[in-house]
Amino acid sequence: xxxxxxxxxxxxxxxxxxxxxxxxxxxxxxxxxxxxxxxxxxxxxxxxxxxxxxxxxxxxxxxxxxxxxxxxxxxxxxxxxxxxxxxxxxxxxxxxxxxxxxxxxxxxxxxxxxxxxxxxxxxxxxxxxxxxxxxxxxxxxxxxxxxxxxxxxxxxxxxxxxxxxxxxxxxxxxxxxxxxxxxxxxxxxxxxxxxxxxxxxxxxxxxxxxxxxxxxxxxxxxxxxxxxxxxxxxxxxxxxxxxxxxxxxxxxxxxxxxxxxxxxxxxxxxxxxxxxxxxxxxxxxxxxxxxxxxxxxxxxxxxxxxxxxxxxxxxxxxxxxxxxxxxxxxxxxxxxxxxxxxxxxxxxxxxxxxxxxxxxxxxxxxxxxxxxxxxxxxxxxxxxxxxxxxxxxxxxxxxxxxxxxxxxxxxxxxxxxxxxxxxxxxxxxxxxxxxxxxxxxxxxxxxxxxxxxxxxxxxxxxxxxxxxxxxxxxxxxxxxxxxxxxxxxxxxxxxxxxxxxxxxxxxxxxxxxxxxxxxxxxxxxxxxxxxxxxxxxxxxxxxxxxxxxxxxxxxxxxxxxxxxxxxxxxxxxxxxxxxxxxxxxxxxxxxxxxxxxxxxxxxxxxxxxxxxxxxxxxxxxxxxxxxxxxxxxxxxxxxxxxxxxxxxxxxxxxxxxxxxxxxxxxxxxx
Length: 670
Hints:
- The protein has about 675 residues and is α+β, with helices and mostly antiparallel strands.
- The radius of gyration is 26 Å and the shape is globular.
- The protein starts with a helix and ends in a 6-residue tail after the last strand.
């Protein structure tokens, strides 16, 4: 890592957690900008432009369309779709060494979480219903960066964060406004795909070793001939009590959200002629208590085809939005709405359900209810089985959702993330292999994101080891490597602990300046990097070390009986998983969200080592202003007897907290 990257990581917008190369620090641990820095930034900007804007189509290639330039591209991993699943898949694959092309059919990344839809990301913690189960991993990194850099809750800044993460990753080539429209297969494998960008008049013919469908609608899988499902399975097919008696082609509908603001004068509203007339009867199961953020229950279209009938669904949803706002403003039921006015209405329906691809296994209701005891588990879910009537708003007689929460969070298997009949196709997001009932839980964006991280990490491993996704699953040693890689990247997998053979910390003992009751130093080596909430009256299982901050820095250290060659250290801090953390326009939700560094997180610390025969500790890295949970520090590998984390400041909490310390000879990611 160059000096410029360290500056941007610690102080700026981009950062893979905190990733410090101690060789880039001055003797005092300070950073400085100079002419070399300016030149490096210019070179970096030019590199990014070259990567994301391949302007020169080859005129010697015969284009299937005479006014479009055909450009041949190749990569290790091709990712179609730039929603939460696709972004997480692309970044994860790239960080594990794969050359990635990410194609998104719109100008913004983020899918339903982008400024185009403005749906807040939810997942296993069920808002506040399952406290302590916020997802870790790459999603936590993005959430923390957003909370710190976007306290104003601007959705466009979330778009920019995702863009920054992708274009700043050297192994990713990002294609925006680029829609996949065909795939060429041979012998059950995808050889290449076609992507078009009408804004630049380019056709991209892209070859890859592994392909990843994160389109939501399974467009890549459809073009490749992958088996897929649409609609609701019959109760008897998988033995699901929540499934309908007979199968059908109905789904959950789409939604359009809105935002509004309070002004210092009366703000009248006249609905357009095509707005629906909404009455109290339409809203008997739907509350209109708050107005700053629209309603997920403005939902429609599940009785149609949510792909083919998108334009009709958009029109009906806009008509309902206008009708609901007319009711709020003009019915007389909400006199306090006089000074409220719309300031944004979505024009892109947020889609819940369409095609799902079929994998070697299909997640079903019973899997969620028993906690997902799979030997190939790679991620967790925990949102309720949350099914909506296909008629949506038109079914005023029904509750807009039936939500059945599982007893515990559950594991999701890797075998639901690759195609059953296309050998080099992985999928992640709402098109993963699941029944409609199981999908009603796994469809939410935080779960889609962690599935994306799992699939992207698997894709990179498939490329590196020269195997197909199924072959990875069938080889126990390869599957174990995948799970251990995911754990190292802070992905939560229930009942799987750190058993990384490269982690030298596992051979050490632990000492500390002191500890709080129940938070002993040895817990940083117990293989679990989060506290485990229990249901009912069972106590919280704490898996972190904690000690009071005082006049002197708190410290914890690893001790080896025989010196170990250490040059790469990973530390997992506490970022307050017990709270919700998401970008939302809902004011009541935001009141309990910390839109700043999380107070429990270690802010300033030094990493110190004691060499064989030395009497003093040597500082190999100094970090200030940290807000990330996962910190990675590299330095010149030399023998070490003791490795100390010396904590001088948190972001406000009186306790220094550490979940895990790992130690390696060299960077295990590459």
